[in-house]
Write a structure and sequence with these properties.
It contains twelve helices and 14 strands. With 389 residues, it is α/β, with parallel strands linked by helices. 40% of the residues are buried.
């Protein structure tokens, strides 16, 4: 088959969306399907590159007329500028998108994430009579009811006009059904996965003490403040352990200040963003992997911890309970509950044999259920079914 993947963002940007789309494209290409990736550029120009996995990546500017008023002056000015140039830039980008799709001749178009690129994708598919699947990733649905009227209209229109709708968890599908009930009979859960090859034969990261690990962007919904509070309680009874926090973002400064206030700053290492290649090693070395999210549509980072057989403590939110089964392959706690989080970590540290058994069951689960080589077959079957076999 020929598949065009249109993503709201792509590598080298690093996040759950970008990693998932990269693996989907690479896995499809590995299965000898013709893949074309189209994504927004970070400039006003058009570029084309060839991925080492034998597919093309096209980057071109996509704008929608909207004002961002809650992300600071810089974002506001940028959104004003984008809105001003929209009448001139949009037709050029749309024509270029049509040109790319005509050349690629896809059997199916898979749009990942409902964002600025969505209206271009819908119009192009209608113009060229192409089948369109919309894959939701979480942030494109969360906070729907507090968004602008234009954003809500765009989301509903994209969902209703899609030929199929995929979500990465049942929880996210339930949210989408509330927004647009008409998608019930054309939607299904297509979970994200992991390339297990990336997580083999890595030496554990060397740190001066045993350590707990969290990997997440520093934003309010990731809840690092809860983890720091739990760690402060843990330090009262477990003196010989550190906490490593990997990531960056707007709440990092507040988290540093909280660590200082609680007297645990010297035992927390704020590592910032790390190269993708360093992640398996640092995961392999941790005693417990902790994810303290207040919201989490899926949680690819949990699969990475499972791939390294690490015991996990995570919050009972979003799609996490669809990955972690309480006290079988990890421990689930309530969000925003510092005491529960501290007690769960303490329990795993006190019972290392039980923690190791959990880690082994987590590894078994990720190999059986979340390996991209398995999941991509579901994508291929869905694409084929939509095309009539």
């Amino acid at each position: 088959m020929r598949i065009a993947i249109i993503s709201n963002s792509y590598l080298p940007q690093l996040g759950g969306l970008e990693i998932a789309v990269s693996h989907i494209a690479g896995s499809l290409a590995k299965c000898s399907h013709k893949v074309t990736v189209i994504t927004p550029s970070h400039s006003f120009g058009y570029t084309r590159e060839t991925d080492p996995r034998n597919f093309e990546v096209h980057r071109l500017p996509f704008f929608t007329p909207r004002l961002v008023t809650v992300a600071g002056k810089k974002k506001l000015l940028s959104s004003v500028y984008r809105s001003i140039i929209f009448p001139m830039a949009a037709p050029v980008s749309f024509i270029k998108l049509l040109e790319i799709l005509k050349h690629a001749r896809p059997d199916v178009v898979n749009l990942h994430y409902v964002g600025d690129i969505a209206p271009y994708c819908l119009l192009a598919c209608r113009r060229l009579n192409l089948k369109c699947i919309v894959s939701l990733h979480g942030n494109d649905i969360e906070g729907f009811h507090v968004r602008s009227a234009f954003s809500r209209l765009l989301t509903r229109t994209t969902l209703s006009r899609a030929d199929r709708v995929f979500t990465n968890s049942r929880d996210l599908l339930d949210q989408a059904l509330v927004i647009e009930p008409s998608i019930k009979d054309k939607s299904r859960v297509m979970r994200n996965g992991i390339d297990l090859v990336e997580f083999r034969n890595h030496r554990p990261f060397k740190h001066s003490k045993p350590y707990l690990l969290n990997i997440a962007n520093f934003i309010q919904k990731k809840g690092q403040d809860i983890l720091i509070g739990a760690f402060a309680r843990l330090c009262e009874t477990v003196p010989d352990i550190d906490l490593l926090l990997v990531g960056d973002g707007p709440t990092r400064t507040a988290c540093v200040e909280l660590a200082v206030c609680l007297g645990v700053y010297e035992r927390i290492r704020f590592m910032g963003k790390l190269e993708r290649e360093r992640i398996p090693s640092i995961v392999a070395g941790c005693k417990v992997f902790a994810l303290s999210s207040r919201k989490e549509p899926f949680g690819i980072v949990l699969l990475e911890a499972m791939a390294m057989s690490r015991p996990i403590v995570a919050t009972r939110v979003g799609g996490i309970p669809e990955i972690i089964e309480h006290e079988r392959n990890g421990i689930l706690v309530d969000p925003d509950d510092v005491e529960q989080f501290a007690n769960a970590i303490s329990l795993l540290l006190q019972r290392p044999d039980w923690a190791n058994d959990m880690g082994n069951r987590a590894y078994q689960d990720v190999t059986e259920r979340f390996d991209w080589s398995v999941i991509i077959q579901d994508y291929i079957e869905e694409y084929a079914a939509m095309l009539g076999g």
